[in-house]
Inverse folding.
């Protein structure tokens, strides 16, 4: 059992929780994730990236958006409640070194898994330009945390309610056009956003890393649900990733596969909403 030590709502349906998990806190590295299960008898297993850790306290921080059944239930957990099953750290860590100028792009909830990578890249001595974006101002998360690390922070909103009225690919293209070009781009967010980030950097030959954690299911390589095509070869996100060369990922195939269980996912969300009303 892992006890919830703190809980905070960051934006509409986005929550940050700090969980007692001393062994995971000691071992975790940027880019790695945990598998969380609220009910080991029949509950689903979901992957969540470790957003931060405190080895002194023996805790890890998770940031999640309540979009499915499990996250819909998790948002109602309070400080003191216990999570029945927490497994990790899993996945290959982010490769960290002093690349030079790193551009880190986070779309929506993607700012959460991006944050520990930005921390590590800063410690490695990189110059950091961070771009975070969302549909509107109330959906922007971790702005203050990113501001404290970035040499330059650019905030974009689709509706222009805060920062620049632009997609995150707009400042990314401007940075790629500048001289000298960035030495590395990182993009984490919705798959369609990562696809267009990779399309933006490709003509400029800027190496681009994307995190495909949204397609994971089991998290241990057994179910095969997270298979993706990278450089014309099948890879499994949970054990071979979750990070890959964005220019080599077949995003069109991945997007089709993500929609395969849309009907079942909507049924689960509906059941969760009904349960909330009944409570």
């Amino acid at each position: 059992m892992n006890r919830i030590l703190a809980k905070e709502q960051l934006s509409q349906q986005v929550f940050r929780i700090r969980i007692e998990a001393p062994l995971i806190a000691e071992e975790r590295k940027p880019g790695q994730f945990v598998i969380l299960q609220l009910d080991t008898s029949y509950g689903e297993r979901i992957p969540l990236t470790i957003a931060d850790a405190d080895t002194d306290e023996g805790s890890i921080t998770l940031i999640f958006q309540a979009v499915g059944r499990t996250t819909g239930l998790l948002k109602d957990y309070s400080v003191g409640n216990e999570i029945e099953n927490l497994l990790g750290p899993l996945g290959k860590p982010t490769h960290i070194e002093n690349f030079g100028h790193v551009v880190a792009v986070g779309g929506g909830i993607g700012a959460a898994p991006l944050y520990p990578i930005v921390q590590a890249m800063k410690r490695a001595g990189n110059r950091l330009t961070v771009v975070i974006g969302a549909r509107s101002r109330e959906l922007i998360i971790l702005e203050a945390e990113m501001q404290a690390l970035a040499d330059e922070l650019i905030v974009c909103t689709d509706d222009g309610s805060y920062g620049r009225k632009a997609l995150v690919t707009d400042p990314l293209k401007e940075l790629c056009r500048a001289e000298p070009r960035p030495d590395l781009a990182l993009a984490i967010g919705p798959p369609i956003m990562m696809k267009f980030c990779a399309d933006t950097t490709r003509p400029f030959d800027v190496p681009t890393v994307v995190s495909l954690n949204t397609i994971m299911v089991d998290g241990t390589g057994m179910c095969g649900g997270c298979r993706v095509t990278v450089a014309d070869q099948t890879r499994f996100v949970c054990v071979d990733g979750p990070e890959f060369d964005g220019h080599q990922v077949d995003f069109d195939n991945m997007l089709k596969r993500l929609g395969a269980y849309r009907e079942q996912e909507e049924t689960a969300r509906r059941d969760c909403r009904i349960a909330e009303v009944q409570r």
